[in-house]
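Q: Convert this sequence to structure tokens.
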Amino acid sequence: MTIHPRDILFGAGDRTPALPVCDHYAGVEARMHKSLALQAELGPVFDITLDCEDGAPVGGEAEHAQMVASFVMSAANRHGRVGARVHAPDDAAFDADVDTLVKQAGARLAYLMVPKVDSLAQLQAAISSIDAAGVRHGLERQIPVHALVETHGALREVDAIAAHPRIESLSFGLMDFVSAHRGAIGHQAMSATGQFEHPLVLRAKLEISAACHGHGKVPSHCVVTEFRKLDLLQNAAAKASRQLGYLRMWSIHPDQIRTIVDAFAPTAAETDLATEILMAAQAARWAPTSHRDTLHDRASYRYYWHVLERAARTGQPLPIEVRQAFFAEGS
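A:
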């Protein structure tokens, strides 16, 4: 029996989610069509989150949820990487969103995003509602759950929230978090550059990232609203991934997707180094090896494995022997 390197390095029980590095939000029908077309072109290097919270017109929440469900179930969802954001748990539309989406699209939903979580208890109640809908409609799977940390309460309990076994990813909600400070944090902290400078915002980002890594979940970085300024987006994405430990980032415009994917991808030099070290490790049956006069063992192998996984998730070219050894169908 062949044991996959992932099991050798991390153990068979470790299955940290390997999500695409970009989470693209679409709230209106035209943007949904464009997003699915772009995903079909680029492949599953980004997720699409269809938005029932901010996307639905007031009074049209039910119809909007039905439209979202139809997109999830459509042939245009070629890769199965389409999720949905529902209304907040304390909103009157939450239960109806959940019921409609689980009933009509539960079999194919990649995840449900729960916004404005205020506590672990509220998150648990929301997940219980999602799972109850699954039972009610005969769903034979549990839908992965993502949550938005954008309130003081959620930040206070972020470690416990990240530890919840049904949580796959936590995102930082920059705009609502800044607004919750009642003007004490200036509007500059919502900009592409200012969000990395204000101590309270930076603290929140670091706590979310650390909590996710501590529990094997995926931290997802917040938006850059200056969607036409791709240089600012590139700098923000690079800081999020290289300095703050984020593994994923939101896109709010199709033009942002490629920039985010490229920024979160390892460089060619990083990928080449990881390839050389891991192929030598596999040849040595994962015993310690030496590479360019530097010793490596399973501790560093684990690091370089993550580099290769990220290269694969971002569509980087990998040698055929690497794909066959580590990323073959069914691996």
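Residues 53 and 91 are 10 Å apart (CA to CA).
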